[in-house]
Structure formats: structure tokens, C-alpha cells
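--- STAGE predict ---
source: upstream dedup step, 1 unique chain passed
mode: sequence only
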Amino acid sequence: MKKILIVEDNPMNMELILDLLEFSGYNITKAEDGIKALERLAEKKFDIILLDMQLPKMDGLEVLDQIKKNPTTADIPVIAVTAHAMKGSEEHFIEMGCVDYVSKPIDIHKFRAMIDKYLGEDSS
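--- STAGE serialize ---
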């Protein structure tokens, strides 16, 4: 079973993402902020990380930087999750090391297709 780390500080967004992914049969671990995310990453290996870019204590780009600097986590695909999708922000997240990004509010069908794409699952 594929393991996904969700880093999201908004309880409603966390619940939505959780519902979408648990329904698909993924093993989900939650982190409400960047510090907890890094703790979870030290505890076990994940297949993909969904990273909110607007986080308390440590923002998403700082967390991403830590993930990419650590040899044990550097190869895990990270998808940026953001409510602030301005022109150019997509390219910025990709340049920083994300494989893709999803903007809020989340389009359920696009989101599932994106997760399936990176986890090698057949969505049919």
C-alpha cells in the first residue's frame, strides 16, 4: 500500500484530502505543520508528500528545502498544495523541487489523476 504524507494546517482541507485519498486505499499520515512533517519523515518512508505552502512555524518552502537536502527523503516526490496560485508560482514551486502543484479549492478529479500519476496507480 502506498504511503502518503499530508502536510496541511487547515482542518477542513486536511479532511477533504484525507477523504479523497483514503477512499482510494492509500495509507495516510498527517502533519499539521512543517516541524511535525519533518518528524514524520524521520519515522518512516513515504511514496509521496502533499505539502501545503502556507504553514505555521515553518513555511512550505523551508520544509521542502529540508526534504531535498536530506539524502533519505530527497527522492520523494513533493506536490505543492497552495491557495495562492499566482502566475509564476507554479514554476517557482517546480524550481524549488516540487514535482507538481495543486491549487485550492481542489479539483477532485484533477487531484486524483495527479496522485495516481505519481504513484503509478491506474485510475480506471
